[in-house]
Amino acid sequence: MSYPGYPSPSGGYPPQAGGYPPQPGAFPPQAGGYPPAQGGYPPAAGGYPPQAGGYPPQAGGYPPAAGGYPPAGGGYPPQAGGYPPSAGGFPPQTGGYQQQPGTGGYQQQPGAGGYQQQPGAGGYPSVPPAGEKQIMDKCMYMGKKSKVILSHISFAGGGWGAAPGGYGKGFRGSIKDFPGADPLRDVEVLRKAMKGFGTDENAIIELLGSRSNKQRVPMVAAYKTTYGKDLIHDLKSELTGDFEHLVLVMLMSSARFDAAEIREAIKGAGTDEACLIEILSSRSNAEICEISKIYKAEYGKSLEDSISSDTSGHFRRLLVSLCQGNRDERPTVDVSLAKQDAQKLYAAGENKVGTDESQFNAILCARSKPHLRAVFQEYQRMCGRDIEKSICREMSGNLESGMVAVVKCIKNSPAYFAERLHKAMQGAGTKDRTLIRIMVSRSEVDMLDIRQEYVRTYGKSLYNHISGDTSGDYKKLLLKLCGGND
């Protein structure tokens, strides 16, 4: 089934009926216009002839200089990984990579690695748009009814996740803003895909898989405006299984999706501790504050109270500290303070009988991520043991797994998510909720880096692993989010 004009296989918008069709012979003079003078641009009669001493025309016009325009001295040399995206993609946001005066390059700013969602300033509203509550209810229903094993993921630093210090050269996501996307035209595609007998799943996959989150979310309201029908209801009546779940969560804002995942991890029998740690350890302060606002508005209970009532001990303290959204986000590192923090961690664990968990909690939850990476290096030099191994020697249970996850996410978040994805797909069965959460949330943050880490660590591309572990339309849409093979 094809649709005239939208979306085209090439990904662009072909000329629409009623536009300006190409005129024969390019641009002939229009009636009443200014036709070009015959023979090019000779001096018009009565015009301004060349003045003596002016700039005479060069022989042969202006030939291109050899090699184009060489970079001026002191300019901006090419950066590894390219420059940040141009118009039409994701412009650098707070927490991105901005050009610094006099440096000639791009420098990581606070909260680096992601696109920070600022509460109340161009971010996602606290009050749910039409249809989003239905999405969350449906996702929770599917999590309970289907044989889905819960797990974990992230979106750090802003917009869903921060790349570690070693990554982040330019935009590293697999999904970008689609140039010229219009939600009113996009919902026409969705309507045609669902109208009549059967469903054109490929049209839905192509559309949603080529739009960024901020371009997908407005489709819910645009659909109701255009057709007077509920998009979520129509999609649920046409789709099933994991494909339905994936489509529905792609139409949710990032903060609302996080709030729904935390709610699902807490409610009912048992707790998905890994999901809680994943989200809270990888989001920026602004994102955590937005998640907290939405959680309270949706569920009538604060995020902190929900976590406190469902967890206990030092693990509860770890989660409560993380959900405050009060981590230092300055990019600078004080080497002397890093050495002091490393000594405190050593004294609280390896160098004493028992463990002072509160000291670990205070440092891992309050210090900035660049600072903590320096602390981990100092710790390794000081006691000859990796901080993760020390945590495993000193702690156990949920606290151990939670602390280790925080350390891994701070050290190298793409490697951390690559590990999470691998665990979600290895063995019997697939942890689809974890797989969906990571693929959706990281697709606009650091999916390219996750793919690199996946190949390096497991000797197999993420694309191929998804292809072999999933099927049908669900697989097709996941592969669109993956963005390609390595």
Tally of discrete structural domains: 2
Rg, alpha carbons: 27 Å
Q: SS-based structural class?
A: mainly alpha
Span between termini: 31 Å
Helix content: 40-55%
Q: How do the strands of the widest beta sheet line up side by side? A: 1-2
SSE order, one letter for each helix or strand: EEHHHHHHHHHHHHHHHHHHHHHH
Q: What's the main sheet like? A: 2 strands, antiparallel
Low-confidence stretches: 1-5, 7-130, 143-159, 161-168
Number of helices: 22
Gross morphology is: elongated
Instruction: Provide the residue-averaged pLDDT.
Output: 78
Proportion of strand residues: under 5%
Extended strand count: 2
Structural account:
By secondary structure, the chain is mostly helical. It has 2 domains: 109-327 and 397-486, no CATH class; 335-396, Annexin V, domain 1 (Orthogonal Bundle). It is 49% helix and 1% strand. Strands 1-2 form a two-stranded antiparallel ribbon. β1 (97-99) and β2 form a beta hairpin. Residues 1-5, 7-130, 143-159 and 161-168 have low confidence and may be disordered. Pfam families: Annexin.
Write the layout of secondary structure elements.
Blueprint: E1 97-99, E2 106-108, H1 132-145, H2 183-194, H3 201-208, H4 213-216, H5 219-227, H6 231-238, H7 241-250, H8 254-266, H9 273-282, H10 285-299, H11 303-310, H12 313-322, H13 335-348, H14 357-366, H15 369-383, H16 387-394, H17 397-411, H18 413-425, H19 432-442, H20 447-458, H21 462-469, H22 472-482
Helix pairs in contact: 1-7, 1-8, 2-3, 2-5, 3-22, 7-22, 8-9, 8-10, 9-17, 11-12, 12-14, 13-14, 13-15, 16-17, 17-18, 18-19, 18-20, 18-21, 21-22
